[in-house]
Amino acid sequence: MQTAMPTDDTNTKSKSAYFNRELSWLAFNRRVLEQAYDERFPILDRMRFLSFVASNLDEFYEIRVAGLIQQMESNVLETGPDGLGPKEQLRRIHSISCSLVHDQYECWHKQIVPVLAQNGVYFKTREQLTKREIAWLEKYFSDEVYPVLTPLASDPAHPFPSFGNKTLNLLLWLDDPETPETETILAFIPVPRILPRVVCIPGTDKAKPTYVFLSDVIKTFADRFFVGYKIKAIHAFRITRNSDLYIDEEEVENLLLSIEEELYKRRKGSPVRLEIEDGVNDELLERLLTNINLSRQHVFNINGPINMMRLMSVYDLIDRPDLKSAPFSPYLPSYFSGDYNIYELIRAQERLLHHPYDSFTPVVDFVAQAASDPKVLAIKMTLYRTSTDSPIVKALMAAARNGKQVTALIELKARFDEANNIGWARVLEDAGVHVVYGFVKLKTHCKCCLVVRREEDGLRRYAHLGTGNYHTRTAKLYTDLSFFTCRKDITDEVAAVFNTLTGFAKNPKFERLLVAPFNLHQRMQELIRREAANARAGKPARIIAKCNSLIDKDTIESLYEASRAGVQIDLIIRGICGLVPGVPGMSSSIRVRSILGRFLEHSRIFYFENAGEPELFMGSADWMPRNFFRRVEVVFPVDSPELRKTIIEEVLGKALEDSTAKLLRPNGAYGPALAPGGSFFSSQDYFMALSEKRARSDAESCRKDKD
Fold first, then answer.
1. Is the pLDDT of residue 15 over 80?
2. Single pTM value for the model
3. Residues with catalytic annotation?
């Protein structure tokens, strides 16, 4: 549970309260863990949620905790709006994280493993293996593992090893039988990432396949590396290191080369967390901590396999469709199928897609058709994250080879996708694409693609604007919105965004688009304050916002002001939320809900009642300082009555009806939205069913047309 911290604010008549960002994030990861306990999901899906918890914690420690440790070491003790300094934050983070990790492994041992076993899927420790299984593993170890491993001694003649970020390693305590006196001999076995972390022992006619973690396999046969010595103890461990990039914004000359250099440094950044198996000897632990320069407050004793993120690969390894969610095929509207021209469709009317319920194929077609369309002169596109086999990138390359003017703005600083994006940048440049890396001081996070086409009545611009990345894989996993338009007032300003990104413009002016860092923050505050003024004047006033995170202090203060004025405010915030809802005199009319499910809620939508003439916006930005001031973001208006109705009544409306949601309480805890005796409703299930219904309807119409 997070605690709201009151803070005096000279701009308001009463005190305001804020939840701490880091503790709010941990509360989000707790909700992810709750999915692993939720029996509504198939057991392998529940197992995968455990891997999400582990992956989330990795990034949290690599970036957020690493930053707090740096503040402590630099004696930067400033507090945020919540009033907590870095030392107190670290103390609370460790306490909450320990509880989270404990429950994560409790879920693994008492929920996931037993239920999998009931269904014929067996995970075993080395103590549970049969003679047949040990014999099979012995050959596997000899053929596939032993040749790849290199044991490392630790004594005055051998320097203490350097362990990579998040790599699997084994710590061994050895005893020399020929040495009568007691001594502690340390050795290590680093495990290269090339080896699969989970090994499947094939089944037989009488036995099912068995899954074993690689660390147990190595432990079983580790004595082969230390002939003549007795292994007194062996423990798997993993070090998490500071992984934030440090770019000298004043000195950098070549952004690509600078980031490549920082990626190399990231592998050996300062340790921020040690995960080590339970039962390690205290003397051994102390020697390890001393040599890696880490204090005990950052140690996690693990009762189970190190790094549950590896369960992600097991999901695909286990061929049991009956233990997974039923496959879902996104709906492809009939007008987007067959031999169609996407630009003629957009010119006829603006189009909207709701992913993953609607297919991502038209987004790919928007670029792919431009590559071969003789009328298309130019393509401009931002790429923040994309898949390793991206058809969109291939289309950009084809367009360049076909003589189009192609510009790709690739964000090299997209966290943990830096190396992938550097690779794409070089491939695109080799194909003749003009590659731009954006600004040193800003991340380019907006999702925009612009196509310039010569038509009978002159040049026309077509734009795709979205809330999610141009990533075909995550488009099947994230809920996002895609918007296609050729309206001149919108596309002219999209062109201005690209001109700003590729050229020089200190203070570009935007009337229709809300673009960070130029006018997005100011305009959002104006829109919220307008609702407050309307409420005080007795006019209709309401705010609905759906985004990933809300942590910007100015925005929270504006929302508090609107609540005090009587505005009904519904916030659908998946992750971090610094706003404290439901407090009389401050936020009594504000409700905050978080929706987690099969898909990752990712769309950003902002609704303002505007005295009965609603305004609706969508885009790439969350309500966070980084989105307002340290990123290039684009939030765009939706004016089409038909599309507005779909978004307001369907996307937002169903989210507010969702009984799987968790409601944020004033004390920081999240409780169920479903009241006792209430009817169950899942918005994600609803949209999947709706897509399947539309697909059946189209198929039926097609059959009737053929008849």
1. no
2. 0.91
3. 445
